Amino acid sequence: MENYIFCCDWGTSIFRLQLVDNSTGDVLKQISSGDGVSTVYREWTSSSKPISLKEFYLKVLHAHLTTLLLDLQLSSEVNQVLISGMASSSIGLDELPYAEVPFSLDGQTAVIKNIPMTVDFPFDIFLISGVRVIDDVMRGEETQILGLATSNNFIDSNTDVICILPGTHSKHIVIKHSQVVDFKTYLTGELFQLLSTQSVLKGSVEHQSRSEEMSESSLKAFYRGIDDSAPHLTMLNKLFSVRTNDLFGVMSKHDNYFYLSGLLIGNEIRSLQVDGIATIVLCCGNKLFELYKLAIEKIHAGFPIKLISPEVMDKAAFIGQRRIFESYQLKNKV
Amino acid sequence: MENYIFCCDWGTSIFRLQLVDNSTGDVLKQISSGDGVSTVYREWTSSSKPISLKEFYLKVLHAHLTTLLLDLQLSSEVNQVLISGMASSSIGLDELPYAEVPFSLDGQTAVIKNIPMTVDFPFDIFLISGVRVIDDVMRGEETQILGLATSNNFIDSNTDVICILPGTHSKHIVIKHSQVVDFKTYLTGELFQLLSTQSVLKGSVEHQSRSEEMSESSLKAFYRGIDDSAPHLTMLNKLFSVRTNDLFGVMSKHDNYFYLSGLLIGNEIRSLQVDGIATIVLCCGNKLFELYKLAIEKIHAGFPIKLISPEVMDKAAFIGQRRIFESYQLKNKV
Predict the structure, then answer these.
(1) Which helix (H) or strand (E) holds B126?
(2) B114 backbone dihedrals φ, ψ, rounded to 5°
(3) Model ipTM?
(4) Does domain B4-155+311-332 have CATH number 3.20.20.150?
(5) What phi and psi, each to the nearest 5 degrees, are found at residue B170?
C-alpha cells in the first residue's frame, strides 16, 4: 500500500481529489466536489468558529479522504496527501509564501510545506505554494504547467513558449529554458460574467448552452468583436456597442454574446507578447478553447500553436504535484 | 398663470421636476425623487399590469404634478409638461425615434412629441427624444448640452469643443459649428461600480466617503493608475494589479480605490479625440469632477479646459427643454 498517494487540486471553486499509485501513475479513483476554497472559507466565517480555520479545512479534507478510502475498501494505510491550488492562500488551509521566478519545471524551486500527521488527522500533508512576480500571482497554475512539462514533449530546454490558460482569471505564462520566467493574469472571464449578467448589457446578450455549435453569424459576430478590440479603439467605449448592436438590430442577442466575447478575448490576445517565443501553447478544458484558438489564429496569424486537450489538462495538476513531491523527497530524503 | 410650465428631467434612476416661470426662467419649486425610469418600469412589470405601461407612467407623473401644485397652492391651470431623458426610451412613457446628427443647438432638429391632455391627465406633455449616431445613443444629455449652450458663452459657432459628462455611462460629445456632430459612451462608471463591489477586486479597495479630501498618497495612487492606463498596457491585465497592490502591501485599500479609478478614467480620457478641438468642456455635478480634471490635465497637459460647475449642470436640462420647446412652438405655432 505504500505506493498509493492522495493528490488534491484545491481551487477557488472546485475541490478535486484522486488516489493514485505513485509508482505507475495509475489513478484508482477520483472525486470532484464544490468544496472549493471560497466555499469552505465562507462556511467557516459564517460558523460560530468553534475551531480554527485550519482545523475546519482539515475536517473537510478528512471527510473526503475517508469517503474515498471507504469507497475503495482500503484501510487508512495511505497516509500522504499532496495539495496545490488556493489551499495555500490567505483564506486557505495554511498560507504559504510564494515561490519566486525563475520557477524551475523540474520542481526544485517550488515552495512546499509538510504539515505532519496528528492523532486527529492521520495523514501527512505536503502543501505546494504558488508563484509570484513583482505584480502578479498564481496558485495552482504553476503545478499544472509543471505537470504538462513532465508529461508532454512541448517544452524542451531549447524551446521558449507561452502557455495560455483561459478562465475566470486567464493566465499567460512565459517559459524559457525550462523555467517559468514571467506571467500575467487577465480578468477576461470574470469581466465577461459581470458584464453579461449584472450590467446594462445583460439584456442585450443571450447566454448559450455549452453544447451548441457556433453558427456562421455567431462566428462573424465574434470576429467583429475581435476587430473592435483593435488598439486604436477603447474597450470602455466599444462595450457600449453591445447595447447598440441590440438596440439597432445590428445582430441578435445570441450573436451579440459572441461579439462581447470577441471584444474581451481580442483585447487579451492582442497583448500577448510573442517576441522570442517559438510556440503558443493553448491549454484549456472547456468551450473557451475554440474561441481562444480562433482569436489567436486571427490576431497572430501563422504563429505556431500547440493545443493541449481537456483530458491532458485534467491530469496536469496531479502529475505536477507528484513531480514536485519527487524533487522534495530527493532534497529532504523523506 | 399661463407663463408657468412644468419641466421634468426623467432619468434612469432619478426623477426631477420643477415648476418654472417660462418668461423669466424663475424656478418656483423643484423636487427630486427616486422614481427613475428603471424603478417605474420595474414596478410596472412586477404589478399585475391592470393598466398599460404608459398609463402607469402617467399615474406616477400625475401624482408628482399634483403634489407640487398643492404645495404651492396653485390651481391646475398650469397645463404643460416638458419631459426629456429616458422617458422616451423603450422602457419609458412613450418610445420615440432618435433625432439624428448633426443635432442643432438651437433645438430645431430635436424630435419632440405632443401627448395631448385627457380627462384623466389634464396636462399637455411635450416629450423630447434622444439622439443617435451609427453606433451610439443618448437620451437626456442632448437636452443638457443644449441648455448649456443656451445659458453659457462657452460655445459659439466658431469654436469646436468636446463636452465630457462623467457618470455611470460617461459621454464625450463633439460640438462643431453649434451642432452636436458625434458622441461616444464609455462604461467607466458602471465598470468601476461592478469591479469594486462584485469582483475579485472588491476586497482590495475601500469605498470612500464623498466628502473626504483626497490625501497625497491617494493622489499618487490615482496618478499611478493613470500611468498604468498607457496604451502599451492592457486594462484586463492591469486590473489584476489592484489585487496584487493589496496582497503585496504596495498601497492601502483606501489608495487602491483611487488606483482603480485612475486606471479606468485614464483609459477613457486617453481615447479623447482632441484633433480640431479648441476646448475640452468638463461638465459634472459630483466628486468625479476633480478626478476627471486631474486625468485630463495629466494626459492632455496644457489643453484648454472649461469647467462647468455642478450648479450650472443642475439647471442645464430644464433650460434646454424650454429652448427646444420654444423652437417647437415657433415651428408648430402652439
Answers:
(1) strand B124-128
(2) -90, 125
(3) 0.92
(4) no
(5) -65, 140
C-alpha cell at A194: 459581470
Q: Residue B333 corresponds to which cell in the numbers above? A: 405655432
CA-nearest residue of chain B to A232?
Answer: B271
Contact across the interface for A240 and B271, Cβ inside 8 Å:
no
Q: Nine-digit cell at A127?
A: 502543501
The DSSP line for B61-94 is HHHHHHHHHHHTT--TT--EEEEEEGGGSTTSSS
- Total residues belonging to chain B: 334
Give the bridge partners for A165, in sequence order.
Answer: A171
C-alpha cell at B124: 399637455
| Grid cell locating B56 | 402607469
**Placement of cell 469594486 in the chain:** B196
Among A123-137, A206-220, A274-288, B180-194, the least confident range: A206-220
pLDDT digits (tens, 9 = 90+) for B87-146: 999 999 999 999 999 999 999 999 999 999 999 999 999 999 999 999 999 999 999 999
Pick one of 3.30.300.30, 3.40.50.300, 3.30.360.10, 3.30.420.310 as the CATH number of A188-310. 3.30.420.310
Out of A135, A194, A267, the one facing B236 most closely (by C-beta) is A267
DSSP letter at A164 equals E
Q: How far is Cα B4 from Cα B15, in angstroms, rounded to an integer?
A: 20
| Dihedral pair phi/psi, residue A19, rounded to 5° | -105, 125
Name the phi and psi angles at A53, rounded to 5: -60, -40
Assign 3-state DSSP to chain A and report helix, strand, coil percentages, each to 5: 40, 20, 35
DSSP conformation class of A275: T
Say how far apart CA A310 and CA A333 lie, in whole Å.
35
Domain ranges of chain A: 4-153+316-332, 188-310
Distance CA A9, CA A64 (A): 13
As a whole number of angstroms, the longest Cα–Cα distance in chain A is 68
Do B190 and A169 lie within an 8 Å CB cutoff? no
Query: Is the CB of residue B136 less than 8 Å away from at least one CB of chain A?
Result: yes
CATH class of this structure's domain A4-153+316-332:
alpha beta
Contact A91, A82 (CB under 8 A): no
Contacts (Cβ under 8 Å, ≥6 apart) of B33: B14, B15, B16, B64
Amino acid at B14: I
Judge whether B152 and B308 are in contact, CB under 8 Å.
Answer: yes
Which tens digits make up the pLDDT trace of A135-160? 999 999 999 999 999 987 777 777 89
The minimum CA-CA distance between A273 and chain B, rounded to whole Å, is 11
Is residue B242 within 8 A of residue B131, CB to CB? The reply is no
Give the integer Cα–Cα distance in Å for A155 and A292.
21
